[in-house]
Task: inverse folding
């Protein structure tokens, strides 16, 4: 605890000057700068992720699993540049995902549950990112990079990419369950209980993705109405909810280990935390 | 439903069970000796009865009856929403196909 | 008398790893003259069918598998150093832990494809070409966790206490440079020839030299820290206590 | 979604100290108001599944009707009655626990679990009969929906057994019993019933 004070000469608040000046002030003085760093990284990552996967690569919503070799080869050729550029961007920035997992793990550390929860979450999500994101990017890049490849093999790459990406989405549900359990057991009121239950809803829709391994068409295939679209809407609601909740959590954070204070009631504590004075 | 609180759950259960059994009669009314036949009337009635049951479960079993007005209205809204979505998708499907 | 906590033993596994890495790198015939992505299927199949190559490919990739996973103790020592820093939260060490859990897996997947291609070199050359592409693409382009860990170490050092830093400032600057040197490799899929191809200047030579330099420099910095912390007793304080909250 | 949770501090609902159960304010959400996020959210998700099913049903109404004829309406009705009865006992359990009759509440909870197990057994029997009769998850569109909907519902039921377990643990604890947790878990169990009522009428009854 002793090494953490930001110094006695801290000015009471950010300067009123330019945006850049305020950012610089927070960088030097804000005691929650590490938490805000993780939060902003998460938000930026999801924005880039959305732009890359929807308009740039057209990998989302996923194309049909029942296409013939020729159609698949056409899809790769048609999206050649978008795929290679978009996925290269993902290769460069996918490391940002660890900030989100670290922040979520931190939320569990702040709860009254064992440290094991947070650590499990970090390792689960780091491993899940390999089939759930990186393999998709590698395999689609390989499919796109050589336009002259045998269409049957291109088709194999296509199946590999989308099955790895969508079929293994279910492994993320275990992380959701860990988080749910931590929230429901928590006595420090770090995150609201309803979000704990929302984690269960998210986990239950992730189960629905599993039939993507079985069906080539219909509502349960990898771009089906149920297995992809409903799942995506639920995931979107869930992600939006936790991004906002983590923001509130950082605002409420008092660096103690008791119950997290409420925002309105505890303005004074918040101000003193902002100024970097130890509790 | 001005029954004494003790028998109220039982009455709810009896009504819900009666609706469930009524389904069997409903189906028999259109089926032709075991061959199932399509019927928009049966489908609509089945959905509406399901909504009635859902509202009963909300109000009585889940005790929304005694809940604040917000939750009462919200669950009623949900029953309407579910009904609109189900009937809407059924009739849209019929109109398109 | 201090208790032996084993950090030094973990640290001195690094030279062994360096030897494994160097021998794997030199042994793999596709690295000493990096294979061009513009090779035809027949040429790639010929590369794997060449009896002089085949055993070298297999042994080098088996070694390479060990290297990737063997690096984890060093990364965990870095996590321990980050935990000693004057941060309010363990967020940055959590980030580094996330990189550690994800990064080495990528090495394993790349090796898997190389070893698959070499296991049955008599396969249809088109298939061998595909495995070869998958291996090179995974090896070259999948740098996100490497970039991530360099930037997180840099950020952690910048946010450390300026008077009693765990790592000196230049280590942070060095990590930023390394991260920048790794970025072009992510874009290697866009070029089948020239300096951006996977045998080109940026994705191959700059990237791999950056990784080698990172391992060497970070080992030296890490070793100095571990010895210094033993000399001044600051290792006795559990890292947990150094972290607020 | 959020407004219901913010409605949390309704008079006496969330702030009620655990164990203080007999006195209940006139208007209160049973259990944690937070659980209603799950109830309403899952109701929406299932509505989406069922709406997709109904929409596609009219495209192949012949096939759906023919396949539907292979389901036993009696088994479906039995399932519904089992779950409705289990809900009745769950309500009685909550009422008994609220009145402080924990011994009675405990036996009601066990009966609820027993009825849930009977439902589970009936469902597995039905699946086994269908698979024996040559109908699987992939055999045709109707059976895909059938196995998908009943399967995902069964998953909810299995989670429901966990909630009954939580209720029994709460009732067993002498000192720090929480009526709130009992009611929260009960709400979940009724949701399983509610979802089944919708699924039953749409899989077995509609024509």
Result:
């Amino acid at each position: 605890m002793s090494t953490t004070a930001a110094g006695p000469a801290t000015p009471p608040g950010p300067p009123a000057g330019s945006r850049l000046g305020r950012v610089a002030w927070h960088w030097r003085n804000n005691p929650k700068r590490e938490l805000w760093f993780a939060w902003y990284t998460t938000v930026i990552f999801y924005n880039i992720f959305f732009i890359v996967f929807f308009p740039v690569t057209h990998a989302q919503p996923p194309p049909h699993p029942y296409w013939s070799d020729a159609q698949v080869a056409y899809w790769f050729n048609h999206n050649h540049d978008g795929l290679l550029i978009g996925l290269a961007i993902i290769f460069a920035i996918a490391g940002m995902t660890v900030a989100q997992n670290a922040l979520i793990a931190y939320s569990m550390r702040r709860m009254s549950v064992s440290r094991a929860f947070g650590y499990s979450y970090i390792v689960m999500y780091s491993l899940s990112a390999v089939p759930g994101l990186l393999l998709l990017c590698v395999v689609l890049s390989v499919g796109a990079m050589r336009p002259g490849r045998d269409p049957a093999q291109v088709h194999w790459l296509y199946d590999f990419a989308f099955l790895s990406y969508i079929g293994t989405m279910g492994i993320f549900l275990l992380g959701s369950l860990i988080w749910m359990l931590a929230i429901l057991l928590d006595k420090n009121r770090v995150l609201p209980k309803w979000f704990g239950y929302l984690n269960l809803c998210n986990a239950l829709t992730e189960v629905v993705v599993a039939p993507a391994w079985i069906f080539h068409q219909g509502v349960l295939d990898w771009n089906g109405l149920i297995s992809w679209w409903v799942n995506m809407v639920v995931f979107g609601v869930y992600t939006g909810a936790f991004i906002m909740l983590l923001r509130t959590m950082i605002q409420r954070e008092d660096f103690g280990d008791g119950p997290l204070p409420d925002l309105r009631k505890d303005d004074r504590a918040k101000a003193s935390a902002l100024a970097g004075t130890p509790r | 439903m001005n029954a004494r609180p003790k028998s109220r759950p039982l009455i709810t259960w009896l009504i819900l069970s009666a609706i469930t059994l009524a389904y069997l009669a409903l189906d028999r009314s259109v089926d032709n000796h075991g061959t199932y036949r399509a019927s928009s009337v049966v489908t609509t009635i089945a959905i509406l009865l399901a909504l009635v049951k859902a509202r009963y479960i909300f109000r009585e079993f889940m005790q929304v009856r005694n809940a604040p007005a917000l939750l009462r209205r919200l669950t009623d809204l949900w029953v309407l929403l579910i009904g609109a979505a189900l009937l809407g998708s059924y009739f849209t499907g019929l109109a398109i196909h | 008398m201090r208790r032996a906590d084993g950090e030094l033993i973990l640290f001195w596994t690094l030279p062994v790893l360096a030897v494994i890495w160097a021998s794997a790198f030199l042994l793999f015939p596709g690295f000493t003259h990096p294979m061009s992505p513009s090779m035809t299927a027949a040429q790639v199949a010929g590369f794997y069918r060449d009896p002089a190559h085949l055993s070298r490919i297999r042994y080098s990739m088996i070694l390479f598998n060990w290297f990737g996973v063997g690096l984890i103790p060093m990364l965990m020592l870095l996590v321990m150093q980050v935990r000693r820093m004057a941060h309010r939260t363990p967020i940055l060490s959590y980030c580094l832990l996330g990189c550690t859990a994800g990064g080495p897996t990528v090495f394993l997947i790349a090796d898997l494809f190389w070893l698959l291609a070499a296991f049955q070199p008599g396969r249809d050359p088109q298939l061998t070409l595909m495995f070869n592409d998958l291996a090179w693409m995974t090896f070259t382009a999948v740098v996100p966790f490497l970039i991530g860990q360099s930037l997180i170490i840099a950020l952690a050092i910048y946010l450390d206490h300026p008077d009693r830093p765990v790592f000196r400032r230049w280590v942070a600057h060095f990590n930023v440079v390394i991260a920048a040197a790794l970025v072009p490799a992510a874009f290697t899929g866009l070029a089948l020839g020239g300096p951006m191809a996977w045998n080109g200047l940026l994705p191959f030579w700059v990237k791999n030299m950056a990784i080698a330099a990172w391992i060497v420099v970070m080992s030296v910095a890490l070793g100095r820290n571990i010895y210094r912390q033993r000399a001044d007793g600051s290792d006795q304080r559990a890292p947990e206590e150094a972290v607020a909250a | 979604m959020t407004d219901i949770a913010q409605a949390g501090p309704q008079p006496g609902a969330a702030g009620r100290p655990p164990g203080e159960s007999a006195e209940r304010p006139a208007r209160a959400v049973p259990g944690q108001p937070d659980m209603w996020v799950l109830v309403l959210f899952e109701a929406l998700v299932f509505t989406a599944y069922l709406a997709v099913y109904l929409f596609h049903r009219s495209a192949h109404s012949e096939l759906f009707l023919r396949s539907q004829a292979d389901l036993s309406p009696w088994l479906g009705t039995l399932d519904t009655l089992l779950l409705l009865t289990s809900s009745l006992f769950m309500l009685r359990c909550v009422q008994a626990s609220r009145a402080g009759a924990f011994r009675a509440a405990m036996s009601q909870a066990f009966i609820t679990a027993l009825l849930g197990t009977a439902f589970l057994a009936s469902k597995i029997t039905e699946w086994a009969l269908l698979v024996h009769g040559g109908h699987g998850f992939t055999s045709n569109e109707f059976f895909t929906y059938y196995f998908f909907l009943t399967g995902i519902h069964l998953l909810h039921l299995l989670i429901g057994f966990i909630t009954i377990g939580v209720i029994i643990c709460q009732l067993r604890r002498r000192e720090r019993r929480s009526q709130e947790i009992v009611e929260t878990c009960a709400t979940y169990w009724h949701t399983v019933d509610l979802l089944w009522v919708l699924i039953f009428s749409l899989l077995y009854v509609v024509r």
